[in-house]
Amino acid sequence: MADDRNSGYEKDLKIWTSDGTLAGISKLTDRCSELTTDRPPEFTDVNGVVYFTAFDPGAGIELWKTNGTDSGTSLVADIFPNGFSYPRNLTNVNGTLFFSARDKANNFELWRSDGTSKGTYSIEINKIGNYGSYPSEFVNANGVLIFKASDGITGEQLWRSDGTSAGTVRLTTVLNNNFSPRYLTNVNGTIYFRANDGITGEELWKSDGTLSGTMPAADICPGIRGSKPISLTNLNGALLFVANDGTSGYELWKSDVATPGVTRLTDNNGNRSSFPVEDNGSSTLSNLLLTNANGILFFAATDGITGFELWKSDGTATGTVLVKGGIQ
């Protein structure tokens, strides 16, 4: 999306293409635009066709597709006639596009599309009234969609879908309305996430995409409070994350299928957190703590001596070190 400054800013962001050169930049189409700059189009490639969310005066905010040409750019479906369906969470799962959207009959539900209007339809999860299941955090795991949603009875749970109603099933049956799985992260086909079962508090869970294979991964902080793991990150086939065991504060941890359980990689600051996270885990830095750069994890932390500086980790305790810095 870009604005050529010829027709305003907010409602006139257009779709552009580029081959990587200045001469190869061109406006793709004038037939759709982004409604506002704070609603990303979510460009998603499915077998060479790019799907995205855009605004059209005749259809509202709907699902579009393009093959990179003006003639090959079109509205996929007017999901909510005379309204906005707001497609989001666009995800490619083995050649099928999954997303969430709302139609005239229901609020946000799970949808799938093969790129045609007829092949674009919803898979209803919450069948109570028209409240919707509000699916989110879509992850492709071994050719199936893993996500969180609410059926209106048990609150937000972990679900899977193969694109059919019969194949859309709940993976967790925790009778706790605050279970709320989040931070879904795929590590070699295992989905790790944070959830609250009402007994161990907010802890690390994992799923292989089956009901029997969905379970707590570790009880890092025994008791109802939980370790509140955040910034779940796939590093070379292992899960690295930040959690609080109730003694050392927020530190760097690792979970690896080769060595069952979890391992703490840092304890740099005595009984205080090495990471800039509040005790309740609600820091605005939650999604920015860990950054994977070509197989090396970078993050900001303190050892209680140098202040907050740049650190790196290769996923081992000995390979987790201060890059350079300190109070001068």
Verbal overview:
By secondary structure, this protein is an all-beta fold. It is 0% helix and 45% strand. The strands form seven sheets. A four-stranded antiparallel β-sheet has the order 3-4-5-6, with no helix packed on it. A hairpin with a 3-residue loop joins β4 (49-56) and β5 (60-66). 39% of the residues are buried. The model is unreliable at 1-11 and 283-287 (pLDDT under 50).
Give short descriptive properties of this protein.
328 residues, mainly beta, four-stranded antiparallel beta sheet, 45% strand, globular, disordered N terminus
Tell me the major beta sheet. Answer: 4 strands, antiparallel
Oligomer type = single chain
- The pLDDT mean sits at 85
> What is the end-to-end distance?
44 Å
Please give the count of helices.
0
Low-confidence stretches: 1-11, 283-287
Secondary structure class reads mainly beta
Q: How many whole angstroms does the radius of gyration measure?
A: 22 Å
List the strand order in the largest sheet.
3-4-5-6
What is the count of β-strands? 26
* Beta-strand content: 35-45%
Global shape: globular
Q: What proportion of the residues is helical, as a percent range?
A: under 10%
State the order of secondary-structure elements, H for helix, E for strand: EEEEEEEEEEEEEEEEEEEEEEEEEE
Briefly say what this structure is.
The protein has 328 residues and is mainly β. It has strands at 13-17, 26-34, 44-46, 49-56, 60-66, 74-77, 88-93, 96-101, 109-113, 121-123, 136-141, 144-150, 156-161, 169-170, 182-187, 190-196, 202-207, 214-218, 230-235, 238-244, 250-256, 259-264, 290-293, 296-301, 309-313, 321-324.
